[in-house]
Amino acid sequence: MLKKSLVVLLLLVSAFFLLTGCDQLYFKDYEASGTVKDSSGAGIESASVNFSDGSSVKTLADGSWKQTGLNGDIEITPKKSGYTFSPSSFHLAQLDENKDNILFTANSNGTDSGDDSDNSGGDDGSDENSDDSDGTEDNLFVLSGKIKNESGDSISDVIIHFNNGEFSSVTTAEDGSWEKEDLTGRVEVKAEKYGYTFEPPTRSLETSDENVNFTALSTENFYIVSGKVADEKGSGIENAKITFNNGKFSSVMTDADGNWEKSDLFGRVEIKAEKFNYTFEPATIPVETTDDNVNFTAIAEEQPYTVSGRVTNEENIPIPDVVINFNDGTSVNTDYNGDWEKTGLTGEVVVNPELDDWQFSPANKTVYEENDITNFTAQPADNYEYYTLSGVVEDNNGANIHIEIRRASDNTLIANAITNDEGNWTSTSVWGTVIVTPQVTGSISGFTPENDRFSGPETEVNFRADY
Asked: Alpha carbon 182 to chain centroid distance?
């Protein structure tokens, strides 16, 4: 009899709790987990997974989520701007065995897969009374507006936030305007810029509006500065970048005349001009109040350049071994063809040819830019008359042999020639007493004679090649 009474009592107590809906009093908390992925299987990061008990979690980079401390029957609903989900929600009961691997598929751009399990009565998503005829879960809308100060001046570079970062921010343009597309739900809009507060502090909207305007109230004493960037001749430098406190304030660029202007500065500001291949004087200019004379002088950096030329006599015969001097202390020599070249010059450079007992026209020349061709005409300083030497190199086997003609007094090269295939050679620019020497080349071991000496014209300056 006692056992029967206990059984009846337990049944009555259980029935009481079931009827009063207090199942959470005797069911333990549980946890659930799953993934939010797009149609390609890629995880959706930062989607909100909301639970009917008021809690929520955000998905990780791979779209996974997990929630603990759940109790009783729970409705799970995912949400992320620009997406609808299939299923739109998931019902999870306390007694369900499988509380893991709950999958939601995200459809981008507001398209609905039609498999919305949250529609009561088994609705397949084609509700005839729905205004969303395109199947979108949320109506996308656009907000725009302008930011001005109390005087009506436009304020640029103001950051406009939406739902504290749920949607990406935008920045006002030079005229203070801004616009944001693809917003959904109720959106709180807030303006932010250092040195300002804004009225109203926030705006809350859920449909398109093109007059979401804010008034910027200064918390600092702002001022305007302007100036010009010009070269040493006073010509304006276009597209020079003007920076303020190394980027604390946004930079501006000079116009075609080198002019620039910057507003909304406050405190002490270091101003600097920048442009490739230029340095500026002064390097920086400090300001802390309105100033319309913040000017910089642009100094072009010297770029290395190359010049070249040729030295010939009055009969256009090349003069080799002329020393070409430069006022930086360097020099080069002319080659057999009288040619010379010099690289790595900077700025204005004076070029001065030099060879003992010769004079040059012009005596020197100033160069300052790439490919400045600098030729000189040479004439013997003691007014010697030119004469001609010619001859043949026998048994040269068709070799083109260099013939050097050097001044006998100091061995300075004053002329040269090259034999043709038959071994013949001629030089018409010889003067004074000279020594003529054929140059060993290839399989030739020497010449007979080794060299010869002349003080006037000669047509039989002949040598035999030895092997």
From this structure: 30
